[in-house]
Design a protein that fits this description.
The chain has 171 residues and is of the alpha+beta class. Strands 2-1-8-7 form a 4-stranded mixed sheet. It has a 4-stranded antiparallel sheet with strand order 3-4-5-6. The termini are far apart.
């Protein structure tokens, strides 16, 4: 008798492109924002680690800054030339497994650096302007050229205070 065992540990490998993985795992707001600034194909062609806020995270921030939807917020941020720097602050060139993220320190992103490490809530990543660390909420979706970690905040390279409540109402 022969037993065959399978695992979904490398389930991301069925998605050849990062953009396919984002779409198939419900990270559609992030994918739409990446499409808006033209970063999707660039990320698809490189080895990358991506910290991916969920759709709920984008929706909550949209509400905070006075937008009716996350897509409206993305368009408004793009019009102010702020969307691309925020998105590239979520991407690091190279595949970084959890073992690298477990070491407290910094990780060089496409634009800027973020802090990584472990605290009482688990593995985290924190942007320069985030008041608290963003929890990495999964073990990572691994693909041929990428790893995607879902996070519970948008990483902020700039102070969002001037945008609160009036990003979409000031137009």
């Amino acid at each position: 008798m022969v037993a065959i065992f399978t695992t979904n540990a490398n389930a991301g490998y069925r998605n050849n492109n990062l953009s396919d993985l984002l779409q198939s795992n419900g990270l559609t707001t992030l994918k739409a924002a990446l499409d808006l600034v033209g970063l999707t194909s660039t990320l698809d062609q490189n080895r990358v680690t991506l910290f991916a806020p969920t759709n709920d995270v984008f929706d909550a921030l949209a509400d905070t800054v006075g937008c009716s939807s996350a897509i409206e917020m993305a368009i408004a941020l793009n019009d102010l030339d702020l969307l691309e720097p925020i998105l590239t602050y979520h991407a690091a060139l190279g595949k970084y497994y959890k073992s690298r993220l477990l070491r407290t320190g910094t990780l060089q992103m496409v634009s800027g650096e973020v802090s990584t490490g472990v605290n009482m809530n688990g593995l985290y990543v924190q942007g320069d302007e985030n008041a608290s660390p963003s929890k990495i909420t999964d073990d990572g979706l691994v693909g041929w050229r990428y790893i995607v970690y879902t996070i519970d905040q948008i990483l902020l390279p700039v102070d969002p205070t001037p945008l609160i409540g009036n990003l979409c109402t000031s137009s």
